[in-house]
Write a structure and sequence with these properties.
alpha/beta; eight-stranded mixed sheet; three-stranded mixed sheet; about 290 residues
């Protein structure tokens, strides 16, 4: 049986065995986090609800000192992420394991020599739908709806696992922001940075990228990442496509060192063992 692989410039992502596929939103958010998540002393990070592991992979590429532990309540997703990590250039700085945010604790970073320490930052693309139409599989339901996840449980986990000052980056629809802010405030956090995303110019934002931090914590951004990629000027709102239907300048600035944009991929030899079907390199994931 072949695997479905989407190739980036420096790594590939298998996404055929979990509830959610790879999306444009997750790639843009992961890149945005790599540029704008405040720099920390330890760069120990937790990817909560990792799915394919794409956020952890993008952070590992953008942040050369980052060590990232990823959890997912679905063991198949955690296994998929672990396999994607193992085939990446940053395998020594990435690890994944099944985990539930409701009981996950600091020091559980198996394979990363955490030594009982907490995390400097959490990144998450959470299942933010409270209700959704019937889905094909239970796994997809876990990935999309809040069966085992809530804003309150998420912030309780953040308080348990984050070192001082501690940062949280999450992506969810703007209408969910008041609920996340409410529970964040109860734990001493507030929204410090945010970018709203529309699919095209003039349309209402459908998703938001947010960074939360404790009051008084200093926002200090890394100057450059892998391959010398420098962050684009920060924007509070952008559209993925421009009026002509092409990727907008800002979307391209976030992904120019990630997507192939029509170039042929050069997958690692490990990805070529067994039956693997590569995604059309001229295309990008559907949003």
């Amino acid at each position: 049986m072949s695997q479905k692989i989407f190739y980036f410039q420096d790594f590939g992502v298998s996404f055929d065995s979990i509830g959610m596929s790879l999306t444009t939103d997750s790639v843009l958010f992961g890149s945005w986090c790599g540029f704008y998540l405040p720099e920390t002393a330890s760069e120990r990070m937790l990817d909560a609800g990792t799915g394919t592991g794409i956020l952890a992979l993008l952070l590992a590429q953008r942040r050369p000192r980052a060590e990232i532990f990823a959890i997912d309540i679905d063991p198949r997703a955690a296994d998929t992420a672990a396999r994607n990590f193992a085939l990446s250039p940053w395998s020594s700085r990435l690890a994944a394991s099944p985990g539930d945010i409701r009981n996950f604790a600091a020091g559980a970073g198996e394979g990363l020599e955490q030594g009982g320490k907490g995390f400097a930052a959490i990144v998450s693309n959470p299942p933010y739908y409270k209700n959704s139409p019937p889905l094909k599989t239970k796994v997809r339901g876990l990935a999309r709806t809040e069966h085992a996840w809530s804003a309150a449980a998420f912030w309780e986990m953040a308080q348990r696992t984050l070192e001082e000052p501690g940062w949280v980056a999450a992506v969810f629809p703007p209408e969910r922001l008041p609920e996340y802010e409410k529970h964040a405030a109860e734990k001493g956090f507030s929204a410090r940075l945010g970018t709203l995303v529309s699919s095209r110019p003039g349309l209402k934002p459908y998703i938001g990228f947010y960074i939360f931090g404790r009051e008084g914590a200093h926002l200090s951004f890394p100057e450059a990442g892998h391959n010398g990629a420098s962050p684009p000027d920060f924007q509070e709102h952008f559209s993925i496509r421009d009026a002509s239907g092409d990727y907008s300048d800002y979307a391209r600035a976030l992904t120019e060192d990630l997507y192939l944009y029509g170039r042929r991929p050069e997958p690692p030899k490990a990805l070529l063992s067994g039956g693997i079907s590569g995604h059309d390199p001229a295309k990008t994931p559907a949003g």
